[in-house]
Specification:
Layout: E1 3-7, E2 10-15, E3 18-19, H1 25-34, H2 40-51, H3 58-77, H4 91-99, H5 107-118, E4 127-130, H6 138-146, E5 154-157, H7 162-169, E6 171-173, E7 179-180, H8 182-186, E8 196-200, E9 205-208, H9 214-224, E10 230-238, E11 244-252, E12 256-259, H10 267-272, E13 275-277, H11 283-298, H12 308-324, E14 327-330, H13 334-340, H14 348-365, E15 372-374, E16 381-384, H15 387-406, H16 410-428, E17 431-432, H17 433-444, H18 450-464, E18 467-471, E19 479-483, H19 489-492, H20 494-501, H21 504-517, E20 522-525, E21 528-530, H22 535-542
Parallel strand pairs: 4-12, 4-13, 5-9, 8-11, 9-12, 14-16
Antiparallel strand pairs: 1-2, 2-3, 6-7, 6-8, 10-11, 15-16, 15-20, 17-19, 18-19, 20-21
């Protein structure tokens, strides 16, 4: 019988006096935990490679593999095989550390992209708009972060027209709901006129690598706004006989979206429907990224895909995304948070939903560490968000709040704070282009022409109302700027106001109403079923 041993080099399996080569603990955890949870074909291949050197025949290898699985996986077969997912309190940090092997810095960017992708499986997916100049890594950080998600759910979209999108992703169905292909039509199965053309975007992650065609964006706009679950629009297509026919195409479902670039034509409109952020633009990031590229050129085998860790994380994430489709996160403190959130701009109504959605995504990711209610007459099982989820999400949201609320790219916000506002406050009063150009060189140690500063930096600030343009009273041929924007104290204080307002007594009252509504349901904390009397106390333990 095989035995498992551990040394500083890692785990080893010993059989017939022979030992396998040492392998990392994470690899053994992958074998012992995931093997009985729906990915046995992966584990079979991995165990085969490990055990071949210590066996003499195919029959012996098969039996030894079975013994290993029975001995070291039995404990997981007795439990719900998905319940262990996310048990580690820092599982999100572990995912981010893994992605950091390929992406240096951009810590917040990675987390928000990751939660955006995760939101595809929730009732309210997120739209994310990455803004900023070219070559700062918007596409790279996105692709490296989402590669852990099921590839069948990730659509990489270029500047395609609606027709191209339909041909690539659309499917035809007959009146019985059976899928029909063009080859079936050629063989005489089905009538083209009776078929229904459907593009299903639910549980999909759309990554726009290029600015989508204006017609494509116009078509998807109601979907991105979550105004309607399904839209219908006419589509001209060829039949199998070559005739041009008009078909109604049904686009349904709400996807999660990441826009790596966008057309200025609908830039402002998209910005109001999305979280807006800009990846880091620091010399430290540029330096570490270049060093990593050098390391990859020197030792490419250290960057191979997929490695052991990647297989583990992908398998975990696949099970998690399937699980959360059946749950809905509720916020016991939602009412108090709404009272404290700013309400000075029309778009605050949309932005508040972005904050609550981020809180929900954090709860979904930690779903097996959160209290939940099962067996209700509600449409889905219920997960209760905790205060820790709020703090995690609000940290991320506050990081992108200024770019999201203003619609201004992060590099322009940084320029305003480090150049314009500094000149205005400290020594210049009204600010002219000469002092702006000089200050730019002083802060960033590079040159930038007046025309580029005007077009790429001052124009967005003027449109957002952060500065105003005036004639120079001493020289009317010159333009000067007055700063209008100041810190939004009301917004920055919403978190403190909420934490001061929401008391334990309010939570107890909410729990009382919850019990009245779902008294027959089963309640769980930490995967363990508890009774309704104990439930509030156990929930308080997870509160912070």
């Amino acid at each position: 019988m095989a035995t498992l041993s551990w040394s500083e080099q890692g785990y080893s399996i010993t059989h017939n006096g022979l030992s396998t080569k040492p392998f990392p603990a994470l690899q053994f955890e992958h074998i012992s935990r995931i093997g009985s949870s729906g990915t046995s074909e992966v584990v079979t291949d991995e165990l085969t490679d490990l055990l071949k050197p210590v066996t003499k025949s195919e029959e012996e290898l098969t039996q030894l593999r079975k013994d290993i699985l029975c001995k070291y996986m039995g404990i997981w077969e007795k439990a719900n095989p998905t319940m262990w997912l996310g048990r580690h309190p820092a599982i999100l940090d572990q995912y981010m550390r893994y992605i950091e092997r390929w992406v240096k810095h951009d810590e917040v960017t990675r987390r928000i992209i990751f939660l955006t992708a995760l939101s595809a499986y929730s009732p309210n997916p997120v739209n994310l708009f990455l803004r900023g100049p070219s070559s700062i890594g918007k596409t790279f950080v996105t692709l490296q972060t989402i590669k852990l998600f099921p590839s069948s759910d990730v659509w990489l979209v270029g500047g395609m027209t609606p027709k191209a999108l339909i041909h690539r992703q659309g499917k035809m169905y007959d009146s019985n709901g059976m899928e029909v292909g063009y080859e079936d039509l050629k063989k005489g199965y089905g009538n083209y006129d009776d078929l229904k053309y459907v593009v299903d975007l639910s549980h999909k992650i759309l990554v726009f690598l290029e600015a989508p065609h204006i017609e494509t964006y116009t078509t998807l706009r109601p979907i991105l706004s979550h105004d309607t679950w399904e839209i219908v629009f006419p589509f001209v297509d060829k039949t199998t006989s070559g005739q041009m026919r008009t078909k109604d195409v049904y686009v349904r479902g709400w996807p999660a979206t990441v826009f790596c670039t966008i057309d200025p034509t609908y830039q402002e409109e998209l910005a109001t429907r999305s979280l807006n952020m800009t990846p880091e633009m620091t010399q430290e990031k540029y330096r570490d990224s270049i060093i990593m590229q050098g390391e990859r050129a020197a030792e490419p085998w250290n960057f191979q895909n997929p490695d052991w860790d990647m297989k583990l994380y992908m398998a975990n994430l696949k099970q998690l995304t399937e699980k959360i489709k059946h749950f809905e996160v509720v916020l016991p403190y939602g009412h108090a948070l709404g009272i404290c959130y700013p309400h000075t701009q029309p778009r605050d109504m949309r932005d508040f939903s972005k904050l609550t959605t981020l809180i929900q995504q954090v709860s979904y990711f930690f779903i097996f560490q959160r209290p939940w209610i099962k067996g209700t007459d509600y449409k889905k099982e219920i997960v209760l968000a905790t205060l820790k989820d709020f703090k995690t999400a609000s940290y991320l949201f506050n990081y992108v709040a200024e770019t999201t609320r203003s619609g201004i790219p992060g590099n322009v916000v940084m320029f305003f704070n480090e150049v314009i506002d500094d000149l205005w406050r400290h020594n210049e009063g009204l600010v002219g282009y000469e002092s702006i150009v000089h200050k730019w060189m002083e802060v960033y140690h590079t040159t930038k022409s007046r025309e580029v500063i005007r077009r790429q930096y001052m124009q967005p600030l003027l449109q957002a109302g952060w500065v105003d343009e005036e004639e120079d009273t001493e020289n009317r041929r010159k333009t000067v700027f007055r700063v209008l924007h100041g810190p939004e104290a009301e917004f920055s204080d919403y978190e403190k106001k909420f934490l001061a307002l929401f008391k334990e007594s309010q939570l107890e009252e909410w729990m009382r109403r919850l019990k009245e509504r779902f008294s027959e349901a089963a309640v769980y904390v930490g995967g363990e079923e508890v009774d309704w009397v104990e439930f509030p106390y156990r929930y308080f333990e997870t509160w912070s």
